[in-house]
């Protein structure tokens, strides 16, 4: 859809400044683009390439490696239904079929009103709650058809507050000051405190390269 | 060769290791795969490439290695030999691993070898045959992709065949610096691809085809043209520029169908620019002139017989004649042409260069560097003039490599920053007329005034090489000459490397086909006789011709109307002479006014020798027969000698001797021999000091006309696939100047001076120096030389906002 808005560019520049090498900011910037449009648009990738001084295809290479970066528009709510083994045993496939029927789309599709996209996914590490799903990466477990329908209608009615797809970038990293290493390339960064401690404890003769 | 036979040359010192039970030595830090190669043990591989960093992508090179902790399977391209390492390349475990790797690589690989261009020379085919399991247990459907997709105008990609070795992508990003192809997606959908609408438009795209170990990448000009077992090849040298890249010219059914780069340590390391690689298409162009032609009264061309053509030429050369061109011929042909012109026809005005390059005299006076000398670790390279990527692209790759890894420091002086500006210590932007001044400033400033980035220029511990080219045809060449002299006076130890645009310019100099002072050898010493001035610069020839003082103009593959800096003068000259004789293979703007055209053989059709920028001598191989009634330059010159009025010289015998490199034109004692071939030690002669004019100061911008790799050169224009690569004309202006003159992006601007006015598209470009209008030479749309007056040392133009579109 679009390049990054000027507000997003300001944020992007802040993010870039956190790294000794511009290129390292690539994944956070992809989140930023996804937060803006709900997916990562080609234009946004080109814009990110310009900001990071790399080529668009290098951005695409990273972006396409990660399933969670969408390169096509998806619904406001992305519904990932697990069909891997534990969930399958507990009715995951039936749940998927039910979802497809009630929302009137196939897995991978988006409802006409742009509200929901369904995907069947592999194990999402919540096997104890099988069958389970995620809506914009918020978990819902021990599902059945009734509970599924309830979640969908609550979302439709606005009763269930789940931010629109693409909000993962809103989770901001916070490093307490005492743990900050500053913005230096790795070879100029001081060795972490635990490492220094351990080395002095063991009185080892190994030299700490990072400290030179 | 068995392992025992080769033991004579084996190292006896270094890191001791055991290879298949044999005690051997490797160099410190040597990769296991290389150590095995050296000892005659071949390990199969796909992703490993000697000229690129190892990545361990394909696992084909896995061998059993014991470093004291028990045997384990390790990729030999990622492992350096360590003392007492025990390596088994033939063991059961190694063979099992090889079987497994190949079976998996083939799991998704299509079995379309019979229709694949690579079939017959395919490493995957060969390795599967030699090391593979012979059978596959996979019965599942293979992965499918759309069959070849074009990733550029020149290269097609069949993703089904790709084995994800990362060679092409590594080449693009690490070697060429054009990271336009990349792995996309993940797992079994991983594929090489470009970004949508950003094609792999690299000057070097053809190299990826050559190094792809399967048939995934194919070159548009070669697809389905031949089978590898039908090909025969001749070692030769690329002649499109003066880098002297080594190539193998391959033909099938008497047609050149492919040119491959040859890995020559001293020159191009196996890499070629696409121009060097695909230039052969012009040989079979429909527009090629295949028989002698004469211009009829109505202006059309009509065929004539060779005898008549030669007779007419000989008569015309007997009158007041001059000759231009010849910098692209073989050394032998240059030598014979020089003899025929000077001795048979007493022609004194000839110049192989077209007034758009560095003058031969200047080059003669400087101590030369080789590429190896220039790019040796710890040296400093100064680029004065144009972006090397546009004029010597294959050598640019070597420069890029050493600058990128930090082993060589680069400083450049130019009007538009080069492609390595970001990696350079310093990129000094100058302006026409001020080059010498800025170079002087940088070299002679006191340490306090000088930016510390420039200290390397005067650090005499670091060998210094100056790679120079004519920076701009819209200004006097004297500024460059003066700049070089400044460097030479500050750093008398500096070496120089000319970056000529035309292939065999150094050859032309050696053959005496360029104007200048010639040495006259006496019994035992070489003295410089100022009297022995031969030839005459193209500029003077054209001026005289325009004044009506020349009756016949001979064009030896030259197109002054497209190349000479002052287009109007070239046109006037061709108009004014009585007879124009063109020795050429195509009609071009200058040949269009020829009265007689002598059709000449092209690249791949003649034997001979080539001398590159370094003075390195290398062979040109004839691979195919010249078509039609075409003759080689050598033959044409020699047959003219027979028809000459005063046939008194040895042109005929030089024709015979020049088939081999005899005593002339190069004396053997001038040759420096090494395993990489011969290099000519050009003696350094003193030069008349040049003091260029102080440029007049005027309003407006100073015009710079620079070169692009893809232009409308005759051969490129006649190559089917390459012709489309030439860009359309637009000028580049620094954003600050665009603001100053109120120019808005997207609109055309009006450029004018006393000679011409034109409305042209423009873009802002911060790599262009302030105060400069940068225009590409000889591209589609507009010719900026219309603004140039040859006698003016700097060309000013005024710019203003044009009509809004
Ligand atoms: S296209 Fe060829 S060179 Fe490129 S990764 Fe695939 S197999 Fe390797
Ligand atoms: S199988 Fe569904 S969460 Fe693990
Ligand atoms: S050649 Fe060693 S892993 Fe590919």
Describe this structure in words.
Chain A is an alpha+beta fold and 212 residues long. Chain A has helices spanning 6-17, 26-37, 42-52, 56-65, 85-89, 92-103, 145-157, 193-202; strands at residues 77-82, 116-121, 133-135, 138-140. In chain A, strands 2-1-3-4 form a four-stranded mixed β-sheet, covered by helices on one side. In chain A, a hairpin with a 2-residue loop joins strand 3 (133-135) and strand 4 (138-140). Chain A is globular and about 60 Å long. Chain B has 805 residues and is α/β, with parallel strands linked by helices. Among the domains of chain B are: 5-90, Roll (Ubiquitin-like (UB roll)), CATH 3.10.20; 293-357 and 506-680, Rossmann fold (3-Layer(aba) Sandwich); 365-388 and 396-499, Dimethylsulfoxide Reductase, domain 2, CATH 3.40.228; 701-801, Barwin-like endoglucanases, CATH 2.40.40.20. Chain B is 23% helix and 22% strand. In chain B, the strands form nine sheets. Chain B has a seven-stranded mixed β-sheet with strand order 15-14-27-26-25-16-17, with helices on both faces. Chain B has a six-stranded mixed barrel with strand order 32-36-33-35-34-37. In chain B, strands 2-1-5-3-4 form a five-stranded mixed β-sheet, with helices on both faces. In chain B, strand 28 (608-611) and strand 29 (616-620) form a beta hairpin. The termini of chain B are far apart. The model of chain B is unreliable at 1-8, 520-531 and 655-667 (pLDDT under 50). Classes of the chains: A alpha+beta (212), B alpha/beta (805). The A-B interface holds A 42, 45-46, 54-61, 64-67 and B 173, 179-186, 193-196, 198. The complex binds iron/sulfur cluster and FE2/S2 (inorganic) cluster (2 copies). One FE2/S2 (inorganic) cluster binds at residues 45-48, 56-61, 75, 77 of chain B.
């Amino acid at each position: 859809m679009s390049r990054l808005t000027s507000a997003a560019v300001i944020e992007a520049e802040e993010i870039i400044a956190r790294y000794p090498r511009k290129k390292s900011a690539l994944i956070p910037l992809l989140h930023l683009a996804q937060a803006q449009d709900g997916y990562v648009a080609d234009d946004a990738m080109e814009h990110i390439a310009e900001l990071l001084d790399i080529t668009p295809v290098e951005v695409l290479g990273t972006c396409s490696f990660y399933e969670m970066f969408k390169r096509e528009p998806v619904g406001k709510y992305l519904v990932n239904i697990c069909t891997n083994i534990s969930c399958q045993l507990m009715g995951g496939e039936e749940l998927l079929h039910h979802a497809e029927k009630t929302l009137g789309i196939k897995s991978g599709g988006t409802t006409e009103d742009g509200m929901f996209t369904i995907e069947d996914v592999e194990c999402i590490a919540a096997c104890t709650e099988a069958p389970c799903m995620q809506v914009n990466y918020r978990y819902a477990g021990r599902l059945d058809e009734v509970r599924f329908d309830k979640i969908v209608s609550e979302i439709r009615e606005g009763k269930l507050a789940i931010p629109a797809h693409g909000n993962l970038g809103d989770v901001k990293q916070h490093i307490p000051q005492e743990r900050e290493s500053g913005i230096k390339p790795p070879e100029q960064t001081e060795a972490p405190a635990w490492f220094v401690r351990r080395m002095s404890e063991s009185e080892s003769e190994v030299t700490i390269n990072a400290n030179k | 060769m068995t392992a025992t036979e080769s033991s004579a040359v084996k190292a006896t010192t270094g890191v001791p290791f055991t290879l298949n039970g044999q005690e051997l030595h490797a160099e410190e830090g040597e990769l296991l795969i290389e150590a095995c190669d050296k000892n005659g043990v071949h390990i199969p591989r796909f992703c490993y490439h000697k000229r690129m960093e190892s990545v361990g992508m394909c696992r084909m090179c896995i061998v059993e290695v014991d470093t004291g902790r028990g045997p384990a399977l390790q990729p030999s391209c990622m492992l350096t030999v360590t003392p007492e390492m025990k390596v088994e390349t033939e063991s059961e475990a190694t063979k099992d691993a090889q079987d497994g790797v190949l079976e998996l690589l083939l799991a998704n690989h299509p079995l379309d070898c019979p229709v694949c261009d690579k079939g017959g020379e395919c490493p995957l085919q060969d390795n599967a045959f030699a090391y593979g399991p012979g059978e596959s247990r996979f019965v599942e459907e293979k992965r499918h992709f759309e069959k070849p997709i074009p990733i550029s105008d020149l290269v097609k990609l069949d993703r089904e065949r790709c084995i994800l070795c990362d060679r092409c992508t590594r080449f693009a990003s690490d070697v060429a610096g054009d990271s336009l192809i990349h792995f996309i997606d993940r797992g079994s959908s991983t594929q090489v691809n470009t970004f949508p609408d950003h094609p792999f438009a690299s000057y070097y795209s053809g190299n990826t085809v050559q190094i792809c170990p399967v048939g995934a990448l194919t070159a548009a000009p070669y697809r389905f043209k031949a089978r590898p077992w039908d090909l025969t090849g001749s070692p030769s040298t690329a002649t499109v520029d003066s880098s002297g890249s080594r190539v193998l010219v391959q033909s099938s059914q008497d047609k050149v169908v492919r040119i491959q780069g040859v890995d020559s340590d001293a020159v191009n390391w196996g890499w070629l620019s696409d121009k060097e690689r695909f230039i052969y298409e012009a040989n079979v162009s429909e527009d090629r002139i295949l028989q002698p032609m004469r211009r009829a009264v109505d202006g059309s061309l009509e065929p004539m017989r060779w005898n008549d053509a030669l007779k007419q030429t000989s008569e015309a050369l007997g009158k007041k004649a001059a000759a231009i061109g010849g910098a692209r011929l073989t050394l032998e042909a240059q030598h014979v042409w020089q003899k025929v012109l000077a001795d048979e026809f007493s022609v004194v005005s000839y110049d192989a260069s077209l007034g758009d390059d560095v003058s031969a005299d200047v080059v003669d006076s400087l101590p030369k560097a080789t590429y190896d000398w220039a790019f040796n670790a710890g040296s400093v390279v100064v680029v004065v003039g144009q972006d090397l990527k546009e004029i010597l692209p294959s050598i640019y790759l070597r420069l890029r490599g050493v600058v990128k890894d930090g082993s060589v420091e680069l400083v450049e002086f130019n009007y538009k920053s080069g492609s390595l500006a970001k990696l350079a210590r310093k990129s000094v932007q100058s302006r026409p007329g001020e080059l010498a001044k800025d170079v002087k400033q940088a070299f002679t400033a006191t340490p306090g005034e000088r930016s510390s980035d420039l200290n390397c220029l005067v650090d005499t511990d670091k060998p210094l090489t100056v790679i120079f080219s004519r920076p701009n045809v819209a200004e006097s060449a004297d500024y460059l000459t003066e700049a070089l002299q400044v460097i030479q006076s500050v750093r008398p130890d500096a070496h120089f490397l000319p970056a000529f645009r035309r292939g065999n310019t150094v050859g032309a100099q050696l053959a005496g086909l360029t104007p200048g002072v010639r040495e006259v050898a006496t019994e035992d010493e070489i003295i410089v006789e100022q009297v022995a001035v031969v030839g005459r610069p193209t500029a003077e020839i054209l001026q005289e011709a325009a004044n009506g003082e020349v009756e016949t103009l001979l064009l030896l593959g030259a197109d002054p109307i497209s190349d000479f800096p002052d287009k109007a003068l070239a046109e006037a000259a061709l108009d004014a002479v009585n007879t124009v004789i063109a020795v050429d293979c195509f009609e071009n703007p200058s040949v269009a006014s020829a009265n007689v055209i002598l059709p000449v053989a092209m690249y791949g059709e003649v034997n001979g020798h080539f001398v590159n920028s370094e003075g390195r001598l290398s062979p040109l191989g004839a691979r195919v027969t010249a078509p039609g009634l075409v003759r080689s330059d050598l033959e044409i010159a020699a047959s003219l000698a027979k028809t000459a009025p005063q046939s008194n010289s040895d042109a005929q015998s030089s024709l015979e001797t020049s088939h081999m490199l005899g005593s002339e034109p190069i004396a053997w004692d001038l040759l420096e021999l090494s395993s990489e071939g011969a290099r000519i030690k050009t003696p350094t002669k003193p030069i008349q000091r040049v003091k260029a004019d102080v440029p007049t100061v005027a309003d407006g911008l100073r015009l710079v006309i620079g070169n692009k790799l893809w232009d409308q050169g005759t051969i490129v224009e006649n190559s089917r696939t390459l012709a489309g690569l030439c860009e359309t004309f637009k000028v580049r202006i620094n954003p600050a100047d665009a603001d100053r003159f109120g120019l808005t992006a997207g609109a055309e601007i009006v450029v004018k001076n006393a000679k011409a006015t034109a409305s042209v598209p423009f873009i802002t470009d911060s790599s262009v120096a302030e105060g400069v209008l940068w225009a590409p030479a000889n591209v589609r749309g507009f010719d900026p030389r219309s603004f140039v007056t040859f006698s003016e040392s700097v060309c000013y133009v005024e710019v203003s906002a044009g009509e809004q579109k």
